[in-house]
Known about the structure:
- β3 and β4 form a beta hairpin.
- The protein is α/β, with parallel strands linked by helices.
- It has two domains: 270 residues, Aldehyde Dehydrogenase, Chain A, domain 1; 183 residues, 3-Layer(aba) Sandwich (Aldehyde Dehydrogenase, Chain A, domain 2).
- The N terminus is likely disordered.
- The protein has a seven-stranded mixed sheet, sandwiched between helices. A six-stranded mixed sheet has the order 11-10-9-12-13-21, sandwiched between helices. Strands 1-5-6-2 form a four-stranded mixed sheet, with helices on one face.
- α3 crosses α4, α3 packs antiparallel against α7 and α4 packs parallel to α6.
- The chain is built from 17 helices and 22 strands.
- Bound molecules: nicotinamide-adenine-dinucleotide (NAD).
- The site of nicotinamide-adenine-dinucleotide has 28 residues, from α8.
Amino acid sequence: MATTTAPSLEAVPMLSNGKWTELKAKRSGDVYNPSTGKVIGRVGYATAEETGRVVEAAAAALPAWSNTPVVERARVMFRFRALLEQNFEELAAIVTREHGKTLAEARAEVNRGIEVVEFACGIPSLIMGEVLPNIATDVDADAIRHPVGVCVGITPYNFPFMVPLWMFPIALTCGNTFVLKPSEKVPLSAVRTGELLTEAGLPDGVFNIVHGDKECVDALLDHPKVAAISFVGSTPIAKYIYERGTANGKRVQSAGGAKNHLIIMPDADMDQTVKQLAASAYGCAGQRCMAGSVAVAVGKAGDPVVQGLVDYAGKMRVGPTDGNEGVDMGPVIRAEHRDKVASYLDIAKSDGANVALDGRRDFKSEGFLLGPSVVDRVKPSMRVWKEEIFGPVLSVVRAGDLDEALAVGDECEYGNGAVIFTRSGYAARQFKQHFNAGMIGINVGVPAPMAWFPFTGWNRSFFGDLHIQGSESIQFYTRQKVTLTRWPKSDDSHLDPVWRESRK
Ligand code: NAD
């Protein structure tokens, strides 16, 4: 929510050319602690002009950084990784404080981010080119990778630490400079990350942070010195970023929202499956792009799945997470978001579904809390099935057989991920081969994006060509140069006569 007043709260600084400055912004937003419902910071929103200056700082740092030997660029990442380990608990605590996820979830997030740094430390091997000698008589061919230039990362609120790390460690080690525009809802993790990068010895201007909303983002999309944009967020904004960025001639990889299906075959181990369904749907209070959102119970799996979920989720401990380890699920990001998520329970009822577990409870806390919900007898025509809710609500669709369950995926506009629980290799193979999604889990509740593989979202969960992370990220953050070389046998009369004599 943008405001014009400036009470004395922690002002969130931006980083440009190695200097931390407070934006003297006319517009700013509140940063909350979702566990307490209290405002803990104020973040100024950069104007287009201020944003442009940050891009210029990144552009000025580019020639020296891209010319820095690749092994030295990797060494900065090795030092950065050591600092992340040393400051691990502090980083997790910041994530919990500004986002609201449990400390265990925050620690897992920090670990996943560190894995991307580990991937990027291998850049000398990852960025190697290709050579084909004698492609024609006496002609050799090689392809080498160059950085693309100034890269931008625009990130969502749900992984304040990890999602920026999906991007900049790889972009930087490839020889690019970087401007990060973190979510204005959770800017504090990014600030601590920037401090640690500086401590690791990254030169001024190589990594920069600018805060803001649409005005700032549009300035990044339009700036002629921005070469590439990585975006993660909701589908409407992902599509907008992709269209405006590519219209301006930039490379864009743009990851959007999701509606992930979890198929439960009747032969699945029900106790284990229910636990995994709950972890998938209610982990991080359902605010994950890989969260299970629709359980598709096949045949006689239906009743035990619903009953098991109601029993299990009904006992989950929901509460404030900041400084509190004894909690299974924390708050959602804002009061308005909690109310929006809860409104889907009424929408589901009026559309004819059965709310088997209603997460609305009297929590006696100012935090943005909402318990886990289970909505049964959902049909593909209902809003609760079609729309991304991004909260702790799990819909259950009943399917007659595997083919019917597979067909449910074909109706879905998203395609981030899908999971099957089964003991049947045949069912698992059919699912892997035919389900309409890019990230597949077989008896794994969350097919999480891993640093060494691209995050292969499909359909309206991704706009672009080269995905984030893994080998595709190396391609995204570099451009290739192919050289054909022939060295004709030369007349050596131009050489030093003494040396020429010595060769005889
Ligand atoms: P969001 O789209 O509202 O915001 C993402 C970023 O876009 C933020 O930095 C924000 O400042 C900026 N932004 C918002 N509105 C804008 C506008 N009109 N013009 C320009 N920029 C704008 O997303 P969110 O609510 O922060 O995050 C949740 C969403 O992110 C969910 O839809 C979730 O599925 C998705 N997500 C996807 C992935 C993935 O890898 N596919 C990963 C994490 C989250």
